[in-house]
Amino acid sequence: MKILGLEKFFSGRKGWLWGLFGLFMLALAVLPLFASGFWLRTLTLIFLLAAMAEGWNYIGGYTGYAAFGNVAFFGIGAYGTALAMLRLHFSFFPALLVGVAAAMLFAIVIGLPVLRLKGHYFAIATVALATAVGEVADYWTDFTGGSAGLTLPFFDPIEYSGQFFYYISFLLVIFGLWLTYFVMKGKMGYSWVAVREDEDAAKMMGINTTWAKVSAFALSALMAGAAGAIYGYWNTFVLPEEVFKIDYTLQMILSTVLGGPGTILGPFIGAFLYYILITLLVFFFHVGAFHETILGVIIILVMVFTPQGLMDFLSGKKKLTLSSLLENIRTHKV
Amino acid sequence: MKKKVGLLLVVIAILAVLLSACGGGQSAGQSAGQPAGNSSGNGQSAGTSSGGGQSAGTSSGGEESCTVTFGAAVSLTGKYAKEGEYVSNGYNLYVEEINKQGGIQVGDKKCKVALKVYDDESKADRSAQLVEKLITEDKVQFLLGPYGSGNTYATTAIAEKYQVPMVEANGAATKIFNRGFKYSFAVLTPAPYYLRGIIDLALDQDPNIKTVAIIAENGAFALEVAGGAKDYAEEKGLEVVYFDKYAKDAKDLSSLLTAIKAKNPDILLGAGHLQDTLLIVKQAKDLNLSPKVFGFSVGPTSPEFRNALGSDADYVFGGAQWTPELKIQSDDVFGTPQHFTELYEAKYGETPPYQAAESAAALIAYQKAIEAAGSLDRKAVRDALAQLDYMSFYGKLKFNEQGMNIYKPMAVMQNFPDGKLYTVWPKDAATKAPIYPFKPWDER
């Protein structure tokens, strides 16, 4: 029941949190007026990661299916957009729709058989799938340009490209938050949670579980696909090894789990903390490649003490005290 | 009371994030007009150098001092850590040597050289982030390249956005330069030219050579190398009797080599990396495939090639961007490849790989361009780079309209039966005459 407390939207600590969050978003909206190109780029990366994490949250958080291949949607979004721009001479926005549509279509076609699998089998199948799609992009030279990749035109005027990609990624994140909110207060959202809590029971209650799972998968493809589309155009090139990197899947899962799976703000907060932490470690504490080790330790600590993510505490469901941390350890048997 | 703790933590966390972002914002505030106005002159670029006011101002001694700051994101960890180390060694060796001589001549004063190198972890997105930081936060005046075509691809686009010159030394793919960029230059010979030296050498040894077979690994770089070799062979009147690619990480190429054997080519050229090069030589021996010239883009020039193949490495040719043996006389800080090699060995305890030499050469290109421009203005230096025509210890430094150095020929090295590698091409820089033809496997 924890995600269904939306009716008490602006009351109690949740209201506080949303108010604070609103201020934060406002600050982000005006930031490009002051921030350097470096911070614009870093924040754009965070937004894209947050958007992917919001998408992963649909299938991994709300529906409870451990999808480990969401980077495939990211890559398909990037390739779909690039191909539409290069082969069909679309401008960016129509091309983005092509990329997103391709990613969603792929999620539906693949989701129908693959979502019948459960647990480890599903996880492994999605990893294999992402790898396979990457290989196709790598070897289908005539269509995808093979491992030489595709070169995209520049955003014009180039001086404002930093701002353009910042705002468009920011909008994508906001769209993702709205989508989460909108879906979760409707029938579709309830059916996702029902599948997560007990799929057989949900089926017996007359919920079309296939549709629930496929819709969650397709909407997570929408978010990752759009992020991929923006990423490709931003970088001005699409390479198989870049856009099908398993790192991205891991990052979106980490962000979601860190912030709180199955919550609206969790993935966004997780992505933010995760990437700001990396940036601080790398750029201000100069720990070099050790940042991955440090991050690993932090993630283990978060997993052990707050398996439901930081949202547990932020939303006021639990108090951040020693006893509640210890209780977490007991209840989740870690 | 306890209830407040969580909330407090949230507030602190979010404030911290905002503050750190604003901190970045503030330092950028001084240079809000930087991207558009960075070409407004010498004074500004000197003012933004790492030394700050002290370096721009006149010191009490009455003598003006200044600093030229270069920045680079290089792979010091991750899958390109070794190559990245060579790159950063090359940059550092140059900086050390030039500062011994007082620095770079800018107009009528000498400027010390400062270098800022970050680790990009062999990741393109980190590389882009670092270059953006070097430009907008660290305020370096000029950029040097990362290692590898992928990262170079990502970072040249950022250099172009801010109109900051980038002279790179380790991205050979021509696709980087086909985008109409004005601020990117590469000192190394581009991929399509890699195998030209071996074709020239073969025709020089035996004008009756008629046919060539070319195979390439399915990778961006290798395919460009193979495509360039095919075009050049056809231009020279050779017949390309076989042209195909094979999968990355291929474990068996015998069917491909059997097909080539049936065509009986005079020259067999391979474009790939060390592992597949070793595989091709081993399987060619098994099949007794003995063309008159057997050559590869990369592989035969590395010590691992000899270690893995033993005497089977004999007579095989390999392309090289640069070798320590080349006979070149230059008036740059290093003078000759041999002197560069001595300095490098003294400092790093190993023979310099070509990556180190070309990286040092990128800084020499900057030095000569800055000297010619007589200023540190980015636009003026860019224009001087476009006009550059200079013979360095690394070879000719000259750029075509796209910014590629197509004027420096590739060297060719051959594995000799005495177990050593010798530079055999170009003729005027060679230490030994090549052994031709390739000794057939069944006669060894």
The CATH class of the largest domain in chain B turns out to be: Alpha Beta
Radius of gyration of chain B: 25 Å
Residues in β-strands, percent of chain A: under 5%
For the biggest β-sheet of chain A, the strand order reads: 1-2
**Architecture (CATH level 2) name of the largest domain in chain B:** 3-Layer(aba) Sandwich
Count of individual domains of chain B: 2
Instruction: Tell me the number of helical segments of chain A per DSSP (H or I, 4 or more residues long).
Output: 16
Strand order in the largest sheet of chain B: 8-7-9-10-11-14-15
Instruction: Please give the alpha-carbon distance between the first and last residues of chain A.
Output: 23 Å
Strand count, sense and barrel status of the largest sheet of chain B are:
7 strands, mixed
The radius of gyration over CA of chain A amounts to 20 Å
How many β strands of chain B by DSSP?
A: 15
CATH topological fold name of the largest domain in chain B: Rossmann fold
Counted by DSSP, the helix tally of chain B is 15
Largest sheet of chain A: 2 strands, antiparallel
Could you state the order of secondary-structure elements of chain A as H and E?
Answer: HHHHHHEHHHHEHHHHHH
Overall pLDDT confidence of chain A: 86
Overall pLDDT score of chain B: 83
Report the span from N to C terminus of chain B.
88 Å
Order of helices and strands of chain B: HHHHEHEEHEHEEHEHEHEHEHEHHHEEEE
